[in-house]
Amino acid sequence: MTKLLQTLFDGLAVGSLYALIALGYTMVYGILQFINFAHSDVFMTGAWVAYVVAATAGWAALGGDAPPLYAGLFTLFASMLFCAILGFGIERLAYRPLRKAPRLNVLITAIGISLFLENIGQRPELFGTQPQKMPQLLPDTTLFTIADVNFRVVDLTVIAVALVLMAVLQWLVFHTRLGRAMRAVSHNFSVASLMGINVDAVISFTFVVGSAMAAAAGFLYVMKYPGALKQPADSTWILLGLKCFVAAVIGGIGNVRGAMLGGVLIGLMEMFGAAYLSPHMRDIYVFSLLIIVLLVRPAGLLGRATVEKV
Amino acid sequence: MTAPILDVRAISIAFGGLKAVTDFSLSLPAGALQGLIGPNGAGKTTVFNLLTGVYRPQTGEIHLDGRRVDGLKPNRIAAAGLARTFQNIRLFGDLTVLDNVRVACHVRAETGLAAAIFRTRAHYGEEAAIRERALSLLEIFGLSHRAGEYARNLPYGDQRRLEIARALATGPKVLLLDEPAAGMNPQEKRALADLIALVRRQFGLTVLLIEHDMGLVMNICEAITVIDHGVTIARGTPAEVQADPAVIEAYLGAPDEPPPASAPAPAPDSAKADP
Amino acid sequence: MLGARAAALRPGYGFVLSRAVGPFGAFLALAFVMQLVVVPWAGPFYEKLLMDIGINCLLAVSLNLVNGFTGQFSIGHAGFMAVGGYVAGAVTYYGSFVLWGSPAVHGGFLGGGDLLFLAGCLVGGLFSAGAGYLVGLPSLRLRGDYLAIVTLGFGEILRVLLQQTNDVIFVPAQIEAATPWQMATALGGALGFSGIPFYTTVFWVFVMLGLLLIVAFRLKESSEGRAFLSIRENEIAAEAMGIDTTRYKVRAFVLAAFFAGIAGALFAHETGTTLNPRELGFQKSFDIVIMVVLGGMGSISGALVAAVLLTVLPEFLREFADWRLVIYALSLIIMMRFRPQGLFGIREIWELWRKPPGASPAGRGAS
Question: Which ipTM was obtained for this model?
Fold first, then answer.
């Protein structure tokens, strides 16, 4: 019973992380219909920027049990800001010139950006080729225990921050003018522009929001797993990004709520698989789920099948 | 009267709440040349997509030469003998004109991958037969001199003709032409009408065509079906259809009654594009 | 309706025999010349370079069957390489133990060991083709870019599985006692499969490359192959013309996987390489994708040129090794912006210099 609840809790924590990243994939796919391969590298950059900020500021060395609360918040916002600018720049410089190009060209460009970020990140002037350990910004303690299940501060923070960000996004997309414009563009690109919507601005905004979310996920990821800050070109990052894309597909690509649902599902599936079957095979559960979904319900759980115009 | 070669029984499809085609029926006798007309957005192309398996009908049945074909994949329906052209031209742009037609011959080929890789005698024979057939079709359509050009470089009228030649190369029993004369000038249209008559005779084809040019349709079609909003509103000879008040209303918006002063009759062009 | 004419138009046996068998003979002769004349003259550095070039050509041309011919986008080619490499490695390594009691290279050029190696290559290719079928069937039914994700995921799953395998058994007594299953799961895990005999020679690389080139060119010049190309050009029209698009996509994918498996087998038995799961990951797959994109998707000769360029250049620009992938990435991005069709587009190199005067006569061509 304890194991069940603990796994459930862990799965929710990981799942909300995945959901944050999946949102970026799904929003871009919804509007531009291509897999933004560089998204996992924005996530990676977010994690590394968080590390650089935290390590440079030296809060962890202040002594005492834990660095002040503002340290974490400052790091989070610094990372989000950096990646928001990065995302804006990527869209502006690489994707926008290809707006009318075949989708395959955009996909290849995205792969190019992904490779570029990874390998430029490995430069000694930037992040280098060595994995690092994230300084601790939160007390590594258990906040409370219910039925022998440990609710660690870190995990609760991850869930809380992810929930807040997703609530903000939800509000943005469904309750603001800008959100309505986003949904309009994703529904029909050319009609939206005829209706006087500034499509370029909406797309830029989508990349900014998606990248900031990915950065937040990167920050939360290294808070949760301080030892897992692998070098930029390590396959961990692409693999994580891939899982989150799978989450978006499972939820129904292009669907914001679907991405959240898919992220949590994948997180739960992974944790339950790791706890009850074999911890080495986590990735395999995720991709098996993808294959099953593609076979049974290619449009995803919340997605609607689209009819191609002939 | 013999059994119809294409027998369509009350097929329907709806996209979400939109009923694109409702209870469409059609019976084409072998060798017929009939037209399918209607205002923009009436569902004509959707009917073609249903017949050729691009969409699966939600009700009804389609029989081609006595064989039920609804629910089959488009390639199986093409193999069964139903070929089509596309309203928005869909040629293989980066293949040559000859290769466009040769691709369509492939559905009648009998040798497979192994024969192609190991180059058996049967393979050579078949390649030669495909080439001969493709060239003779290009000859009929006056495209021989362009055989080696890339399809994307052809002038518009030639692209339309190549689409028909390619469809014929699949060896169809029934040919569906989706606005074959769109974008052509009157001379080209007349030539096209002659060409359709010629291939129909030569290949013993049955033809169903969608066309906006009323002159062309009325001239060459023996019978016409008119649909509007996915519903069949009239059927008959060109003369009968022309005189049918429902048809006139669909196209012109009830001219016999005085139109309301505030709302002028909608022009057919203002209707929604074909789904 | 083609049948009667096709029968009537069959050429004589002499013609068929020379045309069908000729290219095989030509490539075999070329492989012999390379091995027996060029290699002794060029020395070991260039021998290794020639093998690397040949293997990369195999990879680029085979991926081109999928990405160039059918217009799909696979980015997990290294995964199929891994399947072929590991299967072939297991066949020769454990096979040598069983047959000759030691994994060392057995026999001379074209000796018993070489035959075992050839068998290993074919078995590796077949396993890889089988994997291609399993991966391709669910994902190629769908339109769009899901194939990219699924192939990438396949590579990762494979890496995880290979890392779970046991250490290589190298004690003869233990091998004698081992069951086939125990051998098949003792592939070295994360450390890599060490001890595979170095059977790969320039000869074998060029034999396999010759095979692939014959297959690729013959496809391009046949009705079967035109079906592949039509999918790239317009999938909906291809279907309407009676092409079973899923079947042909899967065929292209399986063929490509077969030759990637063979390339993997050659790679596994090459001097100076280690077969480990990390070596055949994303980065390798991307390298191959870049070759195909640079050469021009659809152009066989373009893929060859790009593969040669991208193998040779890094060898001679070693001081820039750190920047290699940064440069690759930038060149991908810049190329998509300014020359998305790659060096040669979908045409072969020799087609660039002539304006198509008319169709080429049937059955004629490189093969």
Answer: 0.87
